[in-house]
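Final report, results section. Input specification for complex C-07:
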Amino acid sequence: MILLIEQILNGLQLGVTLFLLASGLTLIFGIMGVINLAHGSLYMVGAYAMAFVAMKTGSFALAFPAGVIAAGVVGIGVEYLVVRHLYARDHLDQVLATFGLILFFNQAIILVFGRQPVFVQIPESLSGSVQLLPGLKYSLYRLVMIGVGLASAVGLYWLITKTRLGMLIRAGASNRDMVRALGVKIGGLFTLVFGVGAMLAGLAGVMAGPILSVQVGMGEQVLILTFVVVVIGGVGSVRGAFLGALTVGMVDTMLRAFLPGMLREMMTGPSADAMSAGLSAMGVYVLMAIVLLVRPHGSAGAHG
Amino acid sequence: MAETNINLAAGARSWRWQTAVLIGLVLLLAALPLLANMLGMPSLISLATRIVILAIAASSLNLALGYAGLISFGHAAWYGIGAYVVGILYRHFVSGEALLGLPIGSDQLLITLPAAMLITGLCSGLIGALALRTSGVQFIMITLAFAQMIFFFFVALKAYGGDDGLIIRRRNELPFVDLRENENFYWLSLLIAVVWILLLSRIVQSRFGAVLTGIRQSEPRMAALGIATYPYKLVAFILSGMGCGLAGALMANHARFVSPDMMHWTQSGEFMIMVILGGAGTLLGPAAGAAMLILLEMQLGAVTEHWQIILGPLLVLMILFWRGGLSGLWRQMMGTRHD
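Structure output:
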């Protein structure tokens, strides 16, 4: 039981990380019609910027905002230099151009930081654990992560449903040309949304930094999982992204935690371990296949 | 269409020209090993073999991507599965173990290549049937995700080397031809590539191909004409998967090595780049694109180990400013247009 609660919390933590990425990706797609493969690179940029500032200054109070801001600045630069010119292009051009960006970012990071993973300690003030239930201690840092992720989700919900900017975002998602015809400077809105998406991706990278190793390629691994989230949740829907992210986070964590034990009861030897590692890595994709069979357009319709 | 009629006479003239140029090109490619040996650069043969094999994969992807407009970001999976079929069959041939109770195992190319195509056909049929339930950007994401799933499957497949892959000690055997000679293997790959591309050209020119082009241009229009588009898309996806499987099987023989790296998602990206560099929806464009990308990578690799930092922005610039790819350039040179 204790183990189950712990794994649920772990699943929640992966889920909010995926949500931070998926919400940006799906907003950018919903409003600008751009599929941005380099979204994972922004996650990586955030993590590396955080690691760099933490190493130089030793202060996480500086490092965390630095990572988020770096991702935002790089994101806006990418929008200005490349993505802006892709709005009118088809998805194929967008995919290939942003694929080129991934090659560039990965190699640039290797050039600056090398191929070795960078390890960042969990900040001292957050390094302890909390007694949640009798017998259940849980890492304070991970709890804070879940809290920040959920707070961002609430903040995003407020931004989209209650503010003027959110109104424009929703309007842009349902009819871009009409918004432009009504006199909204849509170029600025696009840059802003891209910047917000980039900062959310950076935030995810910053928070994941201390519990994962910061390394080249971290962006693509999580990007592909994010795609699964977006397919399950429905493209263009932030609410769908939230549900999809939590589902994928939970399913992935549960399979990794409990599948090996279950398989070991059924069969013996090292083959069970190897097989369960493979099966649990494949689990979320099978989930995606099932969702597709039942609801080809994802659990929530577009613009939800 | 009107443009085509006006250009008919010029088109017929240039058609003869193009055929002559193509035959010359194939003869030149066939003579390449002799030239390489004469120049004392036998490593060129291996490079050329790689390009010819990747040209098969790129041309196959082009059927789905260029003609039918199905933007698959997962074709490296079929390439890798084709290679693994060769690797696994060879492994069982050497060890003599049964696979699922069947005495499977072969080192005969005439068995392994069709087997690779059959199995990739089945796999791409299964995944394609699911993925084609979506369209547009979801289709891109889902093909990428399923390919990643297959990648993880082979990484976890410890019985066949897992992460480390499989070594194939000897190339497959073919009656009367010694494939261990690099020249012979090159000629075989070239022959298969020419036959496969001719076959693709027949497919594209058939009614089936016309429907595919129609689907790319406007799927609702095709549906309004009373054509159920799903089976057409699925068949195109399967054929294109089988072609990539064929290329993978040849590559496994060429490199005598198979590993999950062959189905890494960046490989899928490279296939797409080849198609776009050469020109999507043209017959020979993807093959030219494969040659261009491999040579470009090699040249940049000679300059710096961090060649991707140059290739990435180069790719962005090409997408932004150089539309139509190599075949667009070719068409400008020949003064014709065709779609």
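Chain B touches chain A at residues 65, 71, 73, 130-131, 133-134, 136-138, 140-142, 144-146, 148-149, 152-153, 155-159, 162, 265, 269, 272-273, 276, 280, 306-309, 311-316, 319-320 (CB under 8 Å). The longest helix of chain B spans residues 8-38. This concludes the modelling results for the funded period.
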